[in-house]
Each structure stands twice: as C-alpha cells, then as structure tokens.
Amino acid sequence: MLTTEQMQPFNDAVNDPLSAETASKEREIIGTLCTYAPEELIWAAGFHPMRLFSSKSDIVLAENHLQAYCCSLVRGILEDSLAGRLDFLTGTVFPHTCDSMQRLSDIWRLKGKYKFFADVVLPVKLNTPSARTYMLDILNTFRTELEAAGGRPILEQDLHEAIHLFNRIRRSLRALYDIKSQNPSIISGADLYTLVKGSMIMDKVQAADRLEQLVSTLMPVDTPENDTGRVILSGSVCDSAAYYQVIESADVQVVADDLCTGQRWFDGEIEDQIDPMAAIADRYMDRMICPAKHSDLTIRGEHLASLAKKHRAGGVVFLLLKFCDPHAFDYPYLKEFLETRGIKTLRIEVDEQQDNAGQITTRIETFAHMI
Amino acid sequence: MSEEASKEKRKIKSAKKMRDLMTTYYLDALSASQNNKKVAWITSGGPVEPLVAMDIIPVYPENHGAMIGSAKMGEDLCAKAEDMGYSADLCSYARSDISCAVVKGGPIGGLPKPDMLICCNNICGTVLKWYEIQARYFNVPLFIFDTPMCHTGYSRPVADYVRAQVDEYIRFLEKVTGKPFDHDRMAQVGKLSMEGQRLWQKVLNTTRHKPSPMSAFDAFFFLALIVTLRGTQVAVDFYKELIQEMEDRISEGISIVPEEKYRLLWDNLPVWYQLKWLSNTFSAHQACLVADTYTSAWCGAIQYIDPDRFLDSMAEGYTRIYLNIGVDQMAEQVIQMVDVYDVDGFVMHSNRSCKPYSFGQMDIMNIVRERTGIPVLMIEADMVDPRNFSQSQVETRIDAFMEIVKQGRDKH
Ligand code: SF4
Ligand code: SF4
User: Fold this and answer.
1) Residue B91 counted as domain residue
2) For the segment B284-338, what is each residue's pLDDT rounded down to a tens digit?
3) What are the tens digits of pLDDT across the range A56-91?
4) Where are the extended beta strands (E) located within chain A?
5) B358 contact A CB<8A
6) How big is the A-B interface in CB pairs under 8 Å?
7) With 80 as the cut, is the pLDDT of residue A258 above it?
8) Does A348 touch chain B if contact means CB atoms closer than 8 Å?
9) Does residue B216 form part of some domain?
10) Which ligand has the minimum distance to the alpha carbon of residue B354?
11) Ligand 2, closest atom to CA B123?
12) Whose CA is nearest to atom 1 of ligand 1?
C-alpha cells in the first residue's frame, strides 16, 4: 500500500494545483484540454502544460454560452474559466476532438481571457500517409506559435529533453499499472487515479522524479493474486476517485483502462533517436485512438479485448459521460464485440455535475457475480 | 377571391414536379443493383461530383432522415436505435438511419444497400461515427474525406491535406468500381454543379423581394435537389424553372404569406415533423421566414470554387462551409443575411441533435443582437425526434416574440 506521505504531493496537486509544493515555480502555465495536446512542445517552449478538469461547480455563467445538452466536462471547464478560477493560466491549447470541444474552443477564443490561445486541428484520420504529413505540418505550426509566445526558438535539444522527461513519466505510470495488474492490493484504484491526475497537473520534473521514487519502493509480489473480479474501465474522463472506491468495495479490481484520464494519456513512448517532431507525430499516429478519431474500424474493440486478455479481466465497465457523442456511438459495437468474445460489459452513465457513484453499488455487485 | 382560391393561387406549382423528380431519383436508387449500378451513401456536405462523374448513384442518409422526420416516423425509429444501445442524446438523423438499416422501416422501406460509404466530416463528428457503424454493418469500403475545422482561416497545411485526399478519393472510386476515372466527364459535372449552386443561390435570393414569393419552409423542401442531384442537368433545369415561377409570382404580386408584414431569419435545421404547424403559426402573425442559415450552406462556398479547376478548388470549397468555420465567422454571415434579406427578427432552433450547429448559438445570438439590434428568439427542439418538442411552450414563446418584433417595427 502507498502511504499517506507518498500520496501527499499528488493529492495536493489534485486539490490545489497552484499552492501545492509541486507547482511549477518559474514556468508559466498553459492549460490543455485533451490527451492529443502536444505537451512535449509546450514544455520545450518553456511552459508548463497542465491538463484542465472541471471543478464541478454549479453551472451559472456557462449557461449563457452552452445549452444543457452539452457534456458536463465542457460546460464545467467553461464555468471555471468564466468564474475566474483559471486566471492563473497564460493560455490554453485546444486539440480538435469532438463537436462540443470544437465549439468550446470558439467560445473560449471569443472571450479572449488569456494571453495565449491555440487550436491544434489534428487530422481525424490517423491511418493514412497524407494524414501523417498533415499532422507533422500542424505540429510545426504549433511549434512556431509557441516560439512566438515564449519569445525564443525551440531548439532540438529542448525537444529531446522534453521527450525524455515525458517518457520517464509514461514509463513510471506504466510500471505502476503493471504492478496494480499483478497485485491489485498493492495500489488502490483511487490512488492510481490520483497519481495519474496529479501527474497531469503538477510540474513535470516533479512528476517524473516522484513517480520514479514510488515505483522503486513498490515491490510486486511474485505470485499473482486470484483472477476473480478483474475489470477494465473504458470511456472519456473518469474524474472521480469515488468510482474506483465503489468498484473496489464490491471486491472488483480495476486492472487496466482505456480512458483519457488513464492509459490513453501515457501509453506509447516517443522514440528519442529520430527527428523529434517526426517522433512526436508518430506517437499520435500509433497510439490507441480516442473515438473522436478514425483508424481501423474495429481497432478499439480489438484493443479492449487484448487488454482484457493480457490482464486476465473478465469484464469491461463503460463509464460514459452523459452527452458524450463519440463514446456513445462506439458503445453498442464494443459491447457486442466484447461479449461475443466472452467478456462481460457494464454501462454506467456519468455526469460530472452530479456524482452518482454511490448509486451504482448494487449494479457493480451484480456485475461482480457475472465475471 | 374566396379563401380557397387565394390559397390555391399561393401554392408553388413547381412543388409537384420536384416531388416527381425525387420519386424518380429514389426509384432509380432502389433499383440500382438490377441496373448494374453502384450506390454510394454520402454525407450531405460531401463531395458528390466525382460520384456523378463515375455514374455511381449517390444516396443521402440525411435526406432520408428528413423524410423520416416529415413522415413523423422519427420517434419510433429513434426509440428502436435506443433499444439497440444507442443513447437518446445522439443525433436523431444518425439514430433513425442506424435502426432503419436494420428494420428496413421508414417511408420508403429503407435505403438501397450501399456499395461504398463516403463520409465528409465538414459538418460534424457525428457522421464519422455514424458511417463507421454502417461500414461495419454493411461490410463495405468507407472513404473518409477529412476536412479540418477552420476556426479562423484556411491554412496551407489544410489545403495540402485536403487536396491530397481528392486524389485518394478518386483512386478509391477507381478501385471500388474497377473503372478508370473520366476527367472530361468530371469537368462537365463540375460545371453543372457550380451552375446548380448558383441557381440555388438565385432561388434563395428571390425572397429579398417584398412581399416574398416563397419562404424558408419552401426552401427546406426545394433543397433536396441541390443536395441529391448536385452536378446533374436535372437540377440545373429544375431550378431554372423554379426561378421563373418565383419571378412570375413577384411580377404578379403573389406572396407566400398573405399580407406579409414581418420578415424573419431562421437558424439551424428545420423541425421536420412540425413544418406545417410552424409555418402556419408564423403566418398567423403575418410573418414570413424569408431566409435561413441551413439551405444557404449548399451555395455558401461558391466563392472558393473555380469551375475550370473544379477538383483543385473543391478542396477549399468543401472545407470552408458554414458549419466548418468559427462561431464568429458564422455570426458575420448571419449579420450579412439580416441585411440582405432585410429581416425584423431572428429565430434560432436550439437543436438537441446537432451539437456543432447549436453550441455557440448563444454567442452568435449576442453578437447579432448587439450589431443589428433585432430581437432574437431561441426555441428548443429536435429536427426528427418529437419527444424533445413542446408545442404549447414553443407557441407561447413565438407569440411573445412576435409582440416584440411588432413593437420594434412600430418604432421605425
Ligand atoms: S467527454 Fe465526450 S463530449 Fe465531452 S469533451 Fe470529451 S469527447 Fe467531447
Ligand atoms: S444534424 Fe448535425 S450532428 Fe446530425 S448529421 Fe447533421 S450536422 Fe451532423
């Protein structure tokens, strides 16, 4: 088990990104809205990329910009911005993903609250050579914008350092996930969630150092624990420790995930021997896609099935954010794809505005008996 | 003149011809396989001209969705999709099409089975997911024409990427049909497409006349040809006749709304299952919806297209359409329309189904209000799924809005 002391800095970063000991001291902060934000470039330009989450405050000001049928993540982040809770930002970057994010970017740009603003309209297709060329072009455009904002060129050396730094974070998180999969009782799901979220928020050197320390103290036990009650989480964001707690109190272990706030963020390392811009583009082309992007027609199903096999999971729990189109469209096919392969599924609708984790206990318990 | 006779006189005669043309088109499409013709399903804003040049019959699930909505069959089909596991919060065109493909329901017993799917994401991300689903279901090749969102402008990387895909698209069609692409035919189709779009613009412009010879409700109906038969002589000929009829109406002083007094602009897709009711409700206030942001999307990109270099310029034309630009540019276009059509009020349909069209509407509303001073009404509905529409509520809001419009006009 991780001690309170070990978890402290990550908890602090999650609770208050700025006052925490782990906040960036010299770097100005650029908020990012999705895992497709090229964080290495932002870091290489001298900024601190910080993933934005909704503080889940009541929607008051955002009511005047976004209708109630917009997902709570998008509405929640806009509310935070309008209420001044993000005034510490120097700027933001919007990678293009879903229709809701696309319009949030427009509304955000028109508000013009921060010094720096960038849209990074990556290709939607991630499986053709022309899309890769375009991806690289767009990354280069973004690099130029960052250079202008940072007032200095981004050197090859800066890029290599940033890639190295993020690779360290990725490697450690992967190691922690592997430990969790092998011996679920060593790290609780809630802690793992906090470690990932904290790393998305805190200063990146601090994140890399602290994660490496953690990994070195955790010793997986050789004998794997029993195979019952192992599940994978799938969805967009799962921004609440409560879901992990409810699942684990039903004696079900989360052993892997396909989440924006999980493996989709840190899977895949960037090659550091080749041209860094090309290497960054390659990671996005190769990484498991988010459903707002296109690759092979059944790639997400195959990915989940292979995760389940690798981690000996009997079920996949879909945490679907209300009004999230890309994930809702994929759900019926994924359900069928997995169930014909003997993997059970459970769908839970999530609304960040109203934490309903408590209400799913019975459904999780029933599911636990099925897997 | 009796009321009956006056109603008869107001009727647009070309409507019958248009219905016949659409019937012929759907019969052709439904019997495609007997005639050894291939069928492609394509998104409404997709590049159809290469299909026409290859003699492939284009079929539009969104047009079919509109038919389902008008036939009031949307609720049932949407509910069937929900039974299949699709969330009720998804686009109702997508939901009704997905279930219709399985149960072969709807007004024409389902669309002809596709031989290929062409998805252009210039309108939304929904179509990407929707076409992936159909590609898995029908097990046919899918081509995605990826048109990056142009929040603030059109950049060189975007231009290069989209242009490269025009060639990939043609290679895809050659592969699926096993026939070489005919560039001479393409040049003709490109010219016809441009001419059709120009004529469609002209049809829409006839409503600048006061009183207006037609309304946006008519435009919603006559739109089907520029969507489905773009690039053909049929569309060109038909719109020429329609323009003639409109000009005749203007010279004879026939208006679509009796005693038109107020002119309004509509935003977003139509509420298909309530067209008649909405039209009557506004007419009762002597208000005519003279224009809309939706039907003009099929001629909004004319400025970027060069009929002599159709394939090259179509990349830009298809990328810079109304929904694929920033909210501020959309507001600019609305403001232009307010001016061109000289309207007294703006009615916005907040459409639960269509997120890219509806999110940002409130910002557009504020910009338009500030810059033009005209009153704006926002009504909540859905284009196909009637479960999200409350007639009494909408009626009260329209009545209140029309009071403000009237007061605004009296001041002038
Ligand atoms: S949760 Fe879904 S709808 Fe919301 S921003 Fe993410 S992908 Fe878009
Ligand atoms: S209605 Fe909107 S979401 Fe649905 S297919 Fe059309 S553009 Fe896309």
Assistant:
1) yes
2) 999 999 999 999 988 888 889 998 899 999 999 999 999 999 999 999 999 999 9
3) 999 999 999 999 999 999 999 999 999 999 999 999
4) 28-32, 47-51, 91-95, 116-120, 230-235, 253-258, 315-321, 344-350
5) yes
6) 143
7) yes
8) no
9) no
10) 2
11) 7
12) A324
Q: For residue B94, report the distance from its CA to the centre of ligand 2, in Å.
A: 8
Position A339 pLDDT exceeds 70? yes
Q: Cα of B94 to ligand 1 centre, how many Å? A: 18
Is A328–B90 a contact, with Cβ atoms under 8 angstroms apart? yes
| Burial class of residue B119 (count of CB atoms within 10 Å of its CB; 0-12, 13-18, 19+) | buried
Token pair 């088990």 is found at A1
Closest CA to B330 of B320, B322, B338: B322
> What domain range is B31 assigned to?
12-181
- The count of domains in chain B is 1
Q: Hunting for tokens 């840190």 — which residue is that?
A: A266
Residue ranges around ligand 2 (CB below 6 Å): B 62, 91, 93-94, 123-124, 126-127, 269, 353-354, 357
Q: Judge whether B228 lies within some domain.
A: no
Cα first-last separation, chain B: 33
Q: What is the pTM of this model?
A: 0.96
Nearest to A98 among B94, B125, B135 (CB): B125
Tokens of B326: 């920033």
**pLDDT for position A273:** 85
Q: What is the CATH number of the domain that holds B171?
A: 3.40.50.11890
Q: Has residue B392 been placed in a domain?
A: no
Residue of B139, B151, B389 to mutate, interface with A, max A Cβ within 10 Å: B151
Question: For residues A318 and B91, what is the distance between their CA atoms, to the nearest angstrom?
Answer: 21
pLDDT band at B245 (very low <50, low <70, confident <90, very high): very high
